[in-house]
């Protein structure tokens, strides 16, 4: 079930919310949690019912494994639990990729079948890996089975994150599901609905509109035809903005949906294209994944505790894993390696500045850092979007002039000239929002829009949401415009669902 589908917006979410409020206000907290668990499992099974069996088996196994680790912090039991979780992820997500690679280099035909990838398996696998490691370290109290079920399956974060840590969400379940006053209830509904509508608007009005200018050119490159430089750069910029609004819109809808139930999910997206370095970008983009990679992979590899060369290797390996996590393909491996290399270069540059006291004008850094960072991130998205390595290099050849730097004739245009004129308007509007408008979290910054969110120290009051009639009218208008787009086109899924 998609967040941007009529089934979710008009049926599932209202019915789930109504049942939640009825049970919670009746003073039945455990029944309230059970209701949300059942609703979340139904939400997950809507897409592919067979995947529900895997999710339930994984929940049972990891809960029992966690109980045993509470009783006996056995390293062998921890390794067994981690290996089994990662093996399940590897079989469903990576086995076909590795077998195809073996077939390609060996010239043999193994005939390994392509398995249906269960939705969200990468996300909930990482959640449970973190849980088992923390139990082994003695950082987790003993949870009830219903607590653990809801931690894993809570539907706003189940399919595509954010990757929620147990310490962030389980205490909230226990507190929020107690009966509270009406003012807090209406506050949660108002704030959550506003965030949900903003996310829906980003997805259906901005991200889906930009897709019309990105996908045709990438599709042509996948077929082996080289686009012209203006077409390639225009399509890449459109995809760069599309991915921004798609992921930002999904994150908002997840946070907004959870907030309507009184649950604060962690921030996962914070204006990443305003980053002034690649390290700053990863502090803003997919923030919960970055936190997991730092806490459970980078530090596990040794972090920065074993010398500078080892630190650089750990950075590179961590990003290589991040690339492979995003997708089973050589394009993602190369994308991760590229970001790893960029982080290595950034660290070397930072260390050189401190070591040799390099004096670089502050104004020069601030002027050039943002466009340089955005440029290298945008070019890296070619590998993230391309169907395969061949399509990626065909596209890159087009970007850098293999078919010339001028627009082709009208009959040879991949996208009609009239559509390109409309595309320039969408690109301009997108750029204005990305670099000029407040983020969703800043817009609602005085009302705790996300877990551990820190509001700006000097907020611009006229750009901040408040529960007033003008803002209610604005939200209602955005909701009506977005819902009209939902009913006109229901084919667009969130890009991060494939990961």
What would you note in describing this structure?
With 499 residues, this protein is mainly alpha-helical. It has 2 domains: 6-181, no CATH class; 186-442 and 481-498, no CATH class. It is built from 20 helices and no strands. α1 runs antiparallel to α2. The longest helix is centred in the middle third of the chain and has 41 residues, at 182-222. It is globular and about 70 Å long.
What would a concise description of this structure say?
By secondary structure, the chain is mainly alpha-helical.
H/E series, N to C? HHHHHHHHHHHHHHHHHHHH
Number of DSSP strands? 0
The helix count comes to 20
The backbone outline, from C-alpha atoms, is globular
Number of domains: 2
N-to-C span: 16 Å
Average of pLDDT: 86
């Amino acid at each position: 079930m998609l967040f941007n589908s009529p089934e979710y917006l008009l049926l599932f979410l209202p019915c789930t919310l109504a049942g939640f409020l009825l049970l919670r206000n009746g003073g039945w907290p455990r029944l309230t949690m059970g209701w949300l668990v059942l609703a979340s499992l139904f939400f997950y099974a809507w897409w592919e019912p067979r995947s529900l069996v895997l999710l339930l088996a994984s929940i049972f196994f990891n809960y029992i494994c966690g109980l045993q680790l509470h009783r006996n912090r056995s390293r062998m039991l921890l390794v067994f639990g981690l290996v089994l979780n990662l093996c399940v992820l590897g079989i469903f997500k990576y086995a076909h990729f590795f077998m195809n690679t073996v077939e390609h280099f060996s010239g043999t035909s193994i005939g390994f079948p392509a398995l249906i990838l269960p939705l969200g398996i990468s996300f909930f696998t990482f959640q449970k890996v973190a849980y088992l490691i923390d139990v082994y370290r003695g950082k987790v109290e003993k949870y009830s089975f219903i607590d653990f079920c809801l931690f894993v399956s809570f539907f706003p974060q189940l399919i595509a994150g954010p990757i929620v840590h147990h310490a962030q969400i389980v205490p909230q379940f226990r507190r929020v599901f107690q009966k509270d006053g009406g003012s807090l209830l209406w506050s949660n509904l108002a704030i959550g609905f506003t965030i949900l509508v903003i996310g829906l608007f980003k997805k259906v009005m901005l991200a889906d509109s930009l897709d019309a200018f990105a996908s045709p050119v990438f599709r042509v490159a996948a077929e082996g035809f080289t686009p012209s430089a203006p077409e390639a750069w225009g399509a890449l910029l459109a995809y760069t903005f599309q991915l921004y609004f798609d992921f930002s819109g999904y994150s908002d809808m997840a946070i907004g949906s959870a907030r309507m139930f009184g649950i604060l999910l962690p921030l996962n997206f914070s204006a990443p294209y305003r980053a002034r370095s690649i390290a700053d970008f990863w502090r803003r983009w997919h923030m919960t994944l970055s936190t997991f990679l730092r806490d459970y992979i980078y530090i596990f590899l040794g972090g920065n505790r074993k010398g500078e060369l080892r630190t650089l290797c750990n950075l590179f390996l961590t990003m290589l894993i991040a690339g492979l996590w995003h997708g089973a393909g050589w394009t993602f491996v190369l994308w991760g390696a590229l970001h790893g290399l960029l982080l290595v270069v950034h660290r070397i540059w930072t260390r050189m500045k401190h070591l040799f006291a390099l004096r670089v004008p502050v104004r020069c850094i601030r002027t050039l850092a943002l466009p340089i960072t955005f440029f290298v991130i945008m070019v890296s998205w070619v590998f993230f979007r391309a169907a395969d390595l061949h399509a990626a290099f065909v596209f890159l050849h087009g970007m850098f002039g293999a078919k010339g730097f001028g627009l082709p004739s009208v009959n040879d245009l991949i996208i009609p000239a009239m559509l390109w004129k409309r595309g320039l308007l969408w690109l301009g509007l997108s750029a204005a929002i990305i670099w000029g408008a407040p983020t969703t979290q800043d817009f609602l910054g005085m009302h705790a829009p996300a877990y551990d969110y820190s509001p700006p120290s000097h907020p611009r009051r006229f750009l901040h949401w408040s529960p007033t009639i003008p803002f209610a009218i604005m939200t209602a208008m955005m909701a009506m415009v977005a819902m009209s787009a939902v009913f006109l086109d229901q084919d667009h899924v969130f890009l991060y669902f494939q990961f």
